[in-house]
Amino acid sequence: MEKQDCVVVGGGPGGMVLAYLLARQGLRVALLEARGDFARRFRGDSLAPAVMDWLDELGLGDEVLARPHAVADGFTWHAPSGSYRLADYSTASRRHPHYVLVPQPEFLTLLAEEAAVFPGFTLEMSARVSGLVEEDGRVVGVRYRVGGGEAREVRAPLVVGADGRFSQTRRLGGFATEELGAGLDILWFEVPRRPDDPALSGLDYFSAPGRAVVALGQGRVWQLGYIIPTGTVAQTREAGVGPVVALAREQLPWLGDRLDGLTDFSQLTLLNVRITRLPSWYRPGLLLLGDAAHVISPVGGNGINIAVADAADAGNTLAGPLVSGDPAAVDAAARAFEVRRRAVSDAEQRNQVRTERGSVERLRRGDPEPLALLKVAARIRPLARLLGRRSARAIAIPPPSEALLAVPARG
Ligand SMILES: Cc1cc2nc3c(=O)[nH]c(=O)nc-3n(C[C@H](O)[C@H](O)[C@H](O)COP(=O)(O)OP(=O)(O)OC[C@H]3O[C@@H](n4cnc5c(N)ncnc54)[C@H](O)[C@@H]3O)c2cc1C
User: Fold this and answer.
1) At residue 381, what are phi and psi to the nearest 5 degrees?
2) 8 Å CB contact between 16 and 109
3) Which one, of 333, 316, 315, 313, lies nearest residue 395 by Cα?
4) What is the pTM of this model?
5) Which one of 44, 222, 241, 296 is separated from 307 by 20 to 30 angstroms, measured CA to CA?
6) For residue 199, is it within any domain?
7) pLDDT tens digits, residue range 167-218?
């Protein structure tokens, strides 16, 4: 492949959005994705109101809404003493007063199609990166194989590692990681959704003494997550799928015979929750973003949103330096990016560690009730709205730059 302005490793939400934004500004960008398709289940699918507003500004919001999706207008904790709407998104955005749940395969396919309109965009699927090309202490490209075939190489002034929680570029680049200690793991499964099912918030948490299940209202299915304290997968597996089904029947009795098909533990998908911080996201020529730079927990549903917001910032601020081809300008922009975005992910991770510790403590104590303070807050509507606005805005997505808006969505 000819020399590029930027190589992006990983076609998840972070990498795909960045490649799109750079290509829209006329850069030559190669996106290398290890998998042969975008099929993936049980990933962060929840686009925050602020991300939807940002997509609108880029002229892509309606395209996203044309794909199968569902909306979640709040987060509700259902406890034995009652239901508490802890976050209300109704004032988080004028046009999108809710999270929009779009399956990741749909979102990624849409972006790949939109990016393909721009001549600088190259997408290589089944392209697994296995090495960095380095010169004089600077990363100047990557080595990869397509479908396990012969090794290829592509060069650029900047390689962006957007290859997720098990990032290979992070490992190859020798970046240190620090585990902040997640408290919970999640076992995901799904059951069909029917039009006459109760209208929940869309993001709902059901708790019983020592047990909890979350329900995400996707378009055609309910995505259900059985919460377990970290480190208890083996004993949960030993107990089998029975307790999972029993809790779902108890908390969501209207699912009825839809739970009959859940008979084996292997039908559950484990999300081994991690909260990982990196002391550095950048070394000359190699920048990490999204989960590669900061694995966050699904608490708050912002994994996808922070990855997109990282890419939005990088798309605004890296394009100019990359066009200039000046390594010092690229280094300065990448370091400034890290400072801005680290503040966001650090704050999110601190919140998550606190929330997870509190939740696991309550699970172990067998206390299914939210904190008394939260119960009071939930009864004060403006407060729940404020929490909804704050949690949704915490991702700090910057508006698209003028250079980006100067190019219409369809080129
Ligand atoms: C099982 C699971 C369930 C989740 N559930 C939730 C949830 O409920 N709520 C929530 O907010 N978040 C959830 N997340 C997290 C959320 O999906 C991520 O935060 C989000 O997708 C991060 O986007 P990303 O682009 O940084 O990385 P990813 O989406 O992980 O994308 C990384 C991409 O890089 C590719 N790749 C990896 N290695 C290479 C390589 N060597 N060469 C080329 N390409 C490579 C991968 O195939 C992948 O497409 C979940 C994650 C997982 C794994």
Assistant:
1) -55, -45
2) no
3) 313
4) 0.95
5) 222
6) yes
7) 999 999 999 999 998 788 999 999 999 999 998 999 999 999 999 999 999 9
The CA 250 to ligand 1 mean position distance, Å, reads 32
Q: Are residues 194 and 209 in the same domain?
A: yes
- Domain closes at, from 219, 242, 271: 271
Least Cα distance to 83 among 381, 369, 396, 349 occurs for 369
User: Looking at the structure, do residues 106 and 8 belong to the same domain, yes or no?
Assistant: yes
What DSSP element (H or E) covers 386? Answer: helix 381-393
Residue 350 tokens, joined: 């601190």
Q: Which two tokens stand for residue 402?
A: 């003028």
Whether the Cβ atoms of residue 374 and residue 84 lie closer than 8 Å to each other? yes
On whether both 133 and 38 belong to a single domain, the answer is yes
Tokens encoding 302 = 């912002």
- Ligand 1 pocket, residue 103 CB under 6 Å: no
The range of the structural domain enclosing residue 108 comes to 2-179+274-405
Residue 269 CA: which ligand 1 atom is closest? 1
The one-letter amino acid at 391? S
* Strand, coil or helix: 240: coil
For residue 43, the CA-to-ligand 1 centroid distance in Å is 7
pLDDT digits (tens, 9 = 90+) for 55-100: 999 999 999 999 999 999 999 999 999 999 999 999 999 999 999 9
Specify burial of residue 355 (Cβ count, 10 A radius: 0-12, 13-18, 19+).
Answer: middle
Do residues 322 and 400 both lie within one domain?
Answer: yes
Q: Where are the alpha helices (DSSP H) in 167-326?
A: 168-172, 233-239, 242-251, 303-324
400 lines ligand 1 (CB under 6 A): no
Residue type, 263: T
- Rounded distance, CA 401 to CA 309, Å? 13
Residue 212 lies in a domain: yes
Claim to verify: residue 382 and residue 313 sit in the same structural domain: yes
Substitution site in 32, 41, 163 for ligand 1 pocket (most atoms within 8 Å of beta carbon): 163
